[in-house]
Amino acid sequence: MTETMTMAKALNAGLAAAMDADDRVLLMGEDIGRLGGVFRVTEGLQQRFGEGRVLDTPLAESGIVGSAIGLAMRGYRPVVEIQFDGFIFPAFDQITTQLAKLTARHEGGLQLPVVIRVPYGGHIGAVEHHQESPEAYFAHTAGLRLVSPATPHDAYWMIQQAIASSDPVLFFEPKSRYWPKGEVDLDDAGIGMHASRVVRTGTDVTVVGHGAMVSMLLDAAALADEEGTSIEVVDLRSLSPIDYGPLLESVRRTGRLVVAQEAPGNVSIGSEIAATVSERAFYSLEAPVVRVSGFDTPFPPAKLEGAYLPDVDRILDAVDRSLAY
Amino acid sequence: MSYTAETLQLLAPDGTLRYSDETDRFRDRVDALDETTLREFYRHMAVTRRFDIEAGNLQRQGQLALWIPSIGQEAAQVGSGFAARAHDHIFPAYREHAVGRLRGLDLTRIIAMLRGLTHGGWNPADTGNFHLYTLVIGSQALHATGYAMGVRFDGLVGTGDPERDTAVLVYFGDGATSQGDVNEAYVFAQSYQTPQVFFLQNNHWAISVPVSVQSRTPLFRRPAGFGIPSVQIDGNDVLVSYAATAESLDAARSGEGPRFIEALTYRMGAHTTSDDPTKYRTNDEVAYWQERDPISRYETFLTARGVDAAFFEEVRQEGEDLAADARRQTLAMEPPPADSMFRHVYSDEHPLMAEQAEWLARYEASFEEQA
What we know:
Chain A has 325 residues and is of the alpha/beta class.
């Protein structure tokens, strides 16, 4: 059965499905109960599942993640919501020194199925700390898994796959994509959460991105097509581990790669992809891998975000630079 | 620095047992302790101290990267540890060797960690629910609170069935009380009315920084601000440590929410073998606490009750045997294979772990081929 819905609704339905399937699944976070979350992703879930399974927690991110770790030790599967990307850092220590390492510290005697949902990224005109893309900090940390859906379909399935994982998963939700609608196949996930996927085929240049960047890459590809440039678009989907298979296969055909991301480029997911593709597909490359990123500044005041964030023009400019080699 | 008018104490430093209006409520709990248990208190304190000395020696002889001595804190640990029931869960910091031992932890597991062979290395299911040590100060307070939330969600609080009602006991030190995580743990514990006892061993020094820098308020008063009932006890008195913890655990198990105990004790040795306490504290201070030693006062108490020299000799021998055995085992400990570092980073399969383990194996094999 296929249904058309927003990503916010798809996440809501995915969370509900996971809670129906396993009564050890708990939701925790700030304002997620009565209010349904600041983005309404958890709307109605407290009414449906009760205050014992959808917890409006005290306002303390480290406390939320630290207590989620304890709950996971007790056999629960907590799904934590961090209200906004820039609010994750009070929990950074619990995530990177505890959550990420406790399975290794127990030498296999402990699984930690904790999911941390992080609404992230720009394009929403919000105040400081509400538009950031902090994924690289966490991708650098062993013991964590990171995924980011780009569509309602993937959101519906990947949140369930993340909850089913035996490992901690940081689930980055592109908040600028919460409201556009898309088709969700409620019967078939298609692929696992750690697989990357070609979402538009092309022959001249490969472009890759994740989260909200994917729709922008598709827009850029449609425009380029009018000008006679054929762009292949890869949706990364998983940021850690990165599934290089479809990406390398694509680059070996096109010979060119542009990596796009909202995050600052310095020591980023895009840097890692550029390095790895250069190592593994060197003889296929006709041009250096080109990165299109946010600038290496703090995320600027909202009125400047248009100049800060990569847009279709900057992506096409990068495509042109790649083709110029 | 020292005991206050509010410090609960049963066993005075001279070894005499006295009840006051404040401590009379512990009389039944102490009277209920049989002769064997009273002796076990002593055995655990004395044997663990002997082990501790041996581990310190092993470090000095280059066999361990580090040792974390617990000498001086045995009464706080043994009394509180004994108060926990078998199905209770214990989240230690990293100095609770005596608690670990009485819950069934083989102390050489701690040696293995400090010899650089493992970052943890025991499974709480095999060690009487004694969880792993946590080296980042205070982080475990939140894990304990989350665990206790789970116990409550599981309905194992206030059922009236002592076999089912479960509590969580978490240890931390005076330095940890300044950490945000510990204070967030108080908040969450209160919000969710967790079946939990916070057990603070105030040993007066966070490495070189005196407790007066952590707090100008007696630390047991802080939780009161969170609405958590708290007491301050003489942490070098094993009987009050036992009785106060048993009382608090009972309240937690019965659904009354979290409790807090500040045990005033003293770290007789260094923070770890990496520091030199003579640089930051005086001989007079150490001498003051030496006179309040937890084991010697308890030995005086037992002797006055008629426990004979043969028992103390037996315990002394047990300590010697444990120390010798620990030394033997330590010297035989070999590092794990290099590829073990990839094994448990994730529970599910992970391509980077597989790739890098394979790369390392090939790389190491390449030297063998050359040789």
